[in-house]
Structure formats: structure tokens, C-alpha cells
Amino acid sequence: MQTAAVLAGGGALTGVSQPVSAQEADLGTWFSNVSNFDGVVDERGQTEVTIKVGAPGNGGRFAFEPAAVRVDPGTEIVWEWTGEGGTHDVAAEDDSFGSELQGNAGDTFTHSFENEGITTYACTPHKTMGMKGAVVVGSAETGLGTAQAPLVDREPDYGGWFEGTSNFEGTVDMRGREEVRIQVTTDGEAPAFNPPAVHVDPGTAVIWEWDGGSAHEIEAADGSYASPERSSGEWGLRFDGVGISKYASSADDGMRGAVVVGNVFEGVYEITTTHLFLGGSVGAAVLSPLAFGLFLWRKRLANESDAESGQAVGSTRASGR
Fold it and tell me: Environment class of residue 160 by beta-carbon count within 10 Å: exposed (0-12), middle (13-18) or buried (19+)?
């Protein structure tokens, strides 16, 4: 791993270290004394993610916010100092990266994460107080829940679509992302899409991830699209235009979801028709005219070979004021 720390005044410090393996951590224990930890925030679909340093938590301004994030391989994490809580640093537990002690508002430290795995880190002076964090890359298992993203300020009118859908509490704001993931849970007493409703920008790829429960399809309420029947793996569509796409499980009518695309309050709906491409073949499904242009974004099988582990190769830079 090669790191480069950019110092105030334009200077640079470059160091070379041996590649190390991405750390597999017991995150439940790691976060046991972290007061602001409430789950892993799913930030996949973004090329850059910002984490605040010196956020409220742990008895003062001694927290990283969010404490834990899940990102795609290749994502750049930017830690940005708030200027609160004194001086802090960002130090990986496996020594794969580390910043200098900084305390000015606007100071930053950047590291990119290339390989799947889990890396835990802390602020050296305040680690015992609970100022700790973690970066989960790709599909690495954590054994922890996913933190709920914020809801939209204004709810669309679903026309009673979610009556009887027990886990619907509002529309999750996923705008600003290139990719959004929805968990498909079919085992247990409460099968559900999680989150059941998302608001995305036009052009966003939406990926559904099956959890290995009973096999079923995802079917659009108007019949305009349907996934293959499956119990594991992933299936996705890219949504274009403006409107609301409602869908449900073929196995349970109470298991419902919706994708809100663009500004549905303007009253303008663009109509397009697009063919889906499934597994590289043309004509696997054809969309009828509706308020979206959708096409298959990608499909992964459950038996997809594990990503190469072994080396956590990344690049690092820091800036201070």
C-alpha cells in the first residue's frame, strides 16, 4: 500500500508499507461503547462519502458520524473535522492508514478502499471514550443491522398502496446516489422489502437483493416488469423519467414497495419504452409504455465467486488548514 499525506502549505509526505489484509472484525463488540452507533449506513452507489470528525457523541464531541458505513470497492472516504472536541486523528486498527492529529474545522483526511472487507478505526486520544468507526466494503457480513436513511420531507400520494404493509413508515430519501439497494426478505413472519419505498433521481440503478428465503418474483403493479423467480442473488433496473413505480412480491400481496423517481409534485410525466436485457440476451422482457424507461442494470447470481481478499490496497491523502 502506498500512502500520500498532503500537508498544509502544499507539502506532501509519502510513505510505502506492505499490503495488509482487510480486517474482519466483531463489530458488535467494537461498537459496544459507541453512543452514536445505530447501525451500518448504506452508502453504496456513491464514489465519495464524507464522515464528520468531532461529531456529537460519547459524552461530548467525540464521535465519527456516521460511525459505520458500507461502501462499494473503490469508494473514497473523506473524514472532515468539525473543529469541535479538541484534536483528533483517524487511525486504522490494522495500521493500513492513519492521519495526523488535527483540530481545525475543515481539515480533511482521505483514503480509498479497494477490496471487500471490514476495517475498524479510532481516534487515538479518545478511543477509550468510544470515538470509533468502521468501513464495510462490498458485501462483507457484519452481523449488524442497517441504519435507516432519512425520510423525505414531503410524502408522495401512493393511493393506499401501502395499507397492510407493516414495515412502511415513510419514503426513504435516496436521491444523490447512482445506485440504491433494497433488501428482499421472505423468511420469517414478516416478509418485506427494506426499505419499502425509496425516492431516487432519474437514471438511478435500483438493485434488489434476495436473502435466501423462499423463491418469488418482483412484479410491477401495472404489469410492466417482473424479475426472474429466485430466492437468492440480485436483480436490478435503472429508472428514468418522472413518476412512481409500485411493485409487490408474487408470493405475498402484503409485501409491497415503490420507487419514486424525480420530482413527482411537478405533475409532468415522461413516457418511454425500453427493452430489458437479461443475462446478455435481448428480449428477455419487454416493457409496456409507462412513466419510466427501465432497463436491466445488472444481475448477479448467488453462487458468484467470492471477491479476491488478501490485500487491502488503498490511497490516502490529508489536508489541513
Answer: exposed
Give the separation between CA 304 and CA 117, rounded to whole angstroms: 16
Nearest to 73 by CA among 154, 162, 208, 179: 179
The correct answer on CATH 2.60.40.420 for the domain covering 2-145 is yes
The three cell numbers of residue 186 are: 421472505
The residue among 244, 196, 205 whose CA lies nearest residue 221 is: 244
Please give the biggest Cα pair distance in the chain.
61
pLDDT digits (tens, 9 = 90+) for 47-57: 999 999 999 99
Q: Please check whether the domain covering 172-300 is classified as CATH 2.60.40.420.
A: yes
Domains 2-145 and 172-300 share a fold: yes
Q: Which of 63-67, 217-221, 284-288 has the lowest mean pLDDT?
A: 284-288
Give pLDDT tens digits for 150-194. Answer: 889 999 999 999 998 989 999 999 898 888 889 898 876 678 999
Rounded to whole angstroms, the Cα distance separating 82 from 258 reads 37
* φ, ψ for residue 29, nearest 5 deg: -70, -40
What are the domain boundaries of the chain? 2-145, 172-300
- Enter the pTM of the model: 0.58
Q: Give Cα 2 distance to the centre of its chain.
A: 26
